[in-house]
Write a structure and sequence with these properties.
The chain has two domains: 190 residues, 2-Layer Sandwich (Fructose-1,6-Bisphosphatase, Chain A, domain 1); 127 residues, 3-Layer(aba) Sandwich (D-Maltodextrin-Binding Protein, domain 2), CATH 3.40.190.80. It is 30% helix and 22% strand. The chain is built from nine helices and 15 strands. The strands form three sheets. Strands 4-3-5-6-7-8-9-10 form an eight-stranded mixed beta sheet, with helices on both faces. The protein binds 2,5-anhydro-1,6-di-O-phosphono-D-glucitol and manganese (II) ion (2 copies). One manganese (II) ion binds next to strand 5. The site of 2,5-anhydro-1,6-di-O-phosphono-D-glucitol has 10 residues, from strand 5.
Length: 338
């Protein structure tokens, strides 16, 4: 019992390590923790109550909005607004960034960008889903409403990022720039307990994760890399294993623990891939670098890209360093689009 370290205790203990040491950031992470518990409770009931299925609307990107997408968006927004540490949020489920109007919120210095429910096509089939978040200090003056510039900062300016995976157990994983730490939820106690301190991804892995159904539309470099993964070269541990859940959070989490690469490249029909830079790729890039891996768009470090739009998409390669470097090398060698 005395060995249990809760997320709340850990955050306070590590507070002085934050590059932006402040009780405010601790409190902000506390609101994310609270919303995660509420969403977790609802997800666990998903098969029992009439909450799955479409609400009939579409978000700005023309995707079906699932009820749990909307629910998670509302809960995270409400939790972030209530604690007064955040002046605004941008979300996959909101067309525009949302400014919190209370004076206390306006006087706060952080903005949050989030994918409240990642992998939503997996909700109905009892497969892991997640939440992804990314935190920045605003660049606009405190006391005023947040501006577009606050949300369009490059990933290398993140002060914290993390995800929650609602899986066979629920975990919250985060970084404030001093390593990546994971906490497993104990539903009987209602607390996240430190289970994975200072997570590290192996430099080499043997799992590759990609929606291979799109193979014909991939750039030549990615096709060549997939064939490389499948070659029979026992001294190099090849052929690798293919694993694809279709929830970025879950695929990322597995590859992080075991060593591997997740890829969502550009395709002939989606020249920028599918994943969103600000609330999917940047937070995952920050986390993976803290764990010793890398994240790239095939050429450039994800966190060095300068965002131009809230819902901007970008090709994404993330995971074990040597695997990401290898696919980058293939993309350089075979620059053809298909
Ligand atoms: P979201 O549910 O937030 O829209 O994200 C889904 C993303 C990501 O989680 C997943 O890896 C990818 O879409 C799967 O896309 P495909 O079905 O095209 O493989
Ligand atoms: Mn997503
Ligand atoms: Mn989503």
């Amino acid at each position: 019992m005395s060995d249990i370290r809760t997320l709340g205790e850990f955050i306070v203990e590590k507070q002085t390590d934050f590059p932006h040491a402040s009780g405010e950031l601790s409190s902000l992470l506390g609101s994310i923790k609270l919303a995660a518990k509420i969403v977790n409770r609802e997800i666990n009931k998903a098969g029992l109550v009439d909450i799955t299925g479409s609400v009939g609307g579409e978000n700005i990107q023309g995707e079906d909005q699932q009820k749990l997408d909307v629910y998670a968006n509302d809960k995270f927004k409400a939790a972030l607004e209530a604690r007064d540490q955040v002046c605004g949020v941008a979300s996959e489920e909101e067309d525009e960034a949302v400014a919190f109007n209370k004076e206390l919120n306006r006087n706060s210095k952080y903005v949050v960008l989030m994918d409240p429910l990642d992998g939503s096509s997996n909700i109905d089939v009892n497969v892991s889903v997640g939440t992804i978040f990314s935190i920045y200090q605003r660049v606009s003056p405190v006391g005023t409403p947040p501006t577009q510039e606050d949300f369009l900062q490059p990933g290398n300016r993140q002060v914290a990022a993390g995800y929650i995976i609602y899986g066979s157990s629920t975990m919250l994983v985060y970084t404030t720039g001093n390593g990546m730490h994971g906490f497993t939820y104990d539903p009987s106690l209602g607390v996240f307990c430190l289970s994975h301190e200072n997570m590290r991804i192996p430099e080499d892995g043997r799992i590759y994760s990609i929606n291979e159904g799109n193979y014909i539309r991939f750039p030549m470099g990615v096709k060549k890399y997939i064939k490389h993964c499948q070659e029979d070269v026992p001294e190099d541990n090849r052929p690798y294993t293919s694993r694809y859940i279709g929830s970025l959070v879950a695929d990322f989490h597995r590859n992080l623990l075991k060593g591997g690469i997740y890829m969502y490249p550009s395709t002939a029909t989606h020249p920028n891939g599918k994943l969103r830079l600000l609330y999917e790729c940047n937070p995952m890039a920050f986390l993976i670098e803290q764990a010793g891996g890398i994240a790239s768009d095939g050429k450039t470090r994800i966190m060095d890209l300068k965002p131009t739009e809230l819902h901007q998409r970008v090709p994404f390669f993330v995971g074990s360093t040597n695997m990401v470097r290898k696919v980058e090398a293939f993309l350089e060698e075979y620059p053809e689009q298909q």
